[in-house]
Amino acid sequence: MARRMALWVVFALVVAVGTAAASTVVGLSVEDQARLSRYVVVGEVVTTRGLDHPRFGIETAVTLRVSEVLKGDVRAGQPLVFHLRGGQVKDVISEALGEATVSPGQRVLVFIEEVEGRLYNVGLSMGVWDVSEDEAGYVRVTRALRDGLQVVGGLEIEHGPLAIEEMSARVRESIRNPRFDHEMLRSAREGR
After folding, report:
1. pLDDT tens for each residue of 117-175
2. Torsion region of 3: left, alpha or beta (phi above 0 gives left; psi -120 to 50 gives alpha)
3. Which of 59, 61, 62, 170 shows its CA 20 to 30 Å from the CA of 96?
4. 162 vs 54: CA distance, rounded Å
5. Verdict on whether the full-model pTM lies above 0.70
6. Sign of the C-alpha dihedral computed for residues 189, 162, 98 and 128 taken in this order
7. What is the distance between the alpha carbons of residues 169 and 166, in angstroms, rounded to a whole number?
8. What residues are paired with 163 via a beta bridge?
9. Three-class secondary structure assignment of 71-95
10. Which residues of 7-36 are buried (b: 16+ CB within 10 A; e: fewer)?
11. HEC assignment per residue over the chain
12. Going by DSSP bridges, is the β-strand pair 23-26/149-152 parallel, antiparallel, or unpaired?
């Protein structure tokens, strides 16, 4: 748990360095995002609801109906609730620049981490992928990066589209090999 918190603190510090015109996240490989995640799931957005959390402020609770589990102890068909930073409560709107946007009926693949007992997508919109099916019936995922997200760290960010089978294989590999690719995350886990 202490290591998990250390990783979150390092990641939060990097995010906090952003400018007023953008949110900043460290660019991570698909595998490192999976290593940080408690869940990696494909699902359909059922509902979105704005809420005002006493500690974290205005957020959006997103309920997914899980259709495929790449990582985690949830089953297909179950609902899973995670939170986006920012949202709307009554007439008050809070925007988190670079955060994902989702709508009921949308199919997404989400990398979800646990932060202080609450579930959030990893790295704002870096952790959300749009799911589509091509004419031949092949399922593909494409990273849903949003305006206002600045990615730092020198890593070439994959946008996709990737076949869902490739994404699944890469998540499985991250489970088999838990050593982080990114030096900053590796150092935080090893306590350096």
Report:
1. 999 999 988 899 999 998 899 999 999 888 888 888 777 788 889 999 999 999 999 99
2. alpha
3. 170
4. 38
5. yes
6. negative
7. 5
8. 140
9. ECCCCCCCEEEEEEEEEEECCEEEE
10. bbebbeebbeebeeeebbbbbbbbbbbbbb
11. CHHHHHHHHHHHHHHHCCCCCCEEEECCCHHHHHHHCCEEEEEEEEEEEEEEECCCEEEEEEEEEEEEEEECCCCCCCEEEEEEEEEEECCEEEECCCCCCCCCCCEEEEEEEEECCEEEECCHHHHEEEEEECCCCCEEEEECCCCCEEEECCCCCCCCCEEHHHHHHHHHHHHHCCCCCCHHHHHHHHCC
12. parallel
Residue ranges of domains in the chain, CATH in brackets: 28-148+157-178 (2.40.50.120)
Residue 18's pLDDT is 43
Tokens of 85: 């930073």
Q: Name the one residue in this structure whose structure tokens are 């995002």.
A: 33
Torsion region of 49: left, alpha or beta (phi above 0 gives left; psi -120 to 50 gives alpha)? beta
Kindly give, in sequence order, each residue whose CB lies less than 8 Å from that of residue 70, ignoring residues fewer than 6 positions away.
34, 40, 41, 42, 109, 167, 168, 171, 172
Taking a C-beta distance cutoff of 8 angstroms, is the pair 82, 145 a contact? Answer: no
Q: Which two tokens stand for residue 12?
A: 């939060």
How far is CA 169 from each of CA 36, 50, 163, 164, 172, rounded to the nearest angstrom? 16, 34, 10, 9, 5
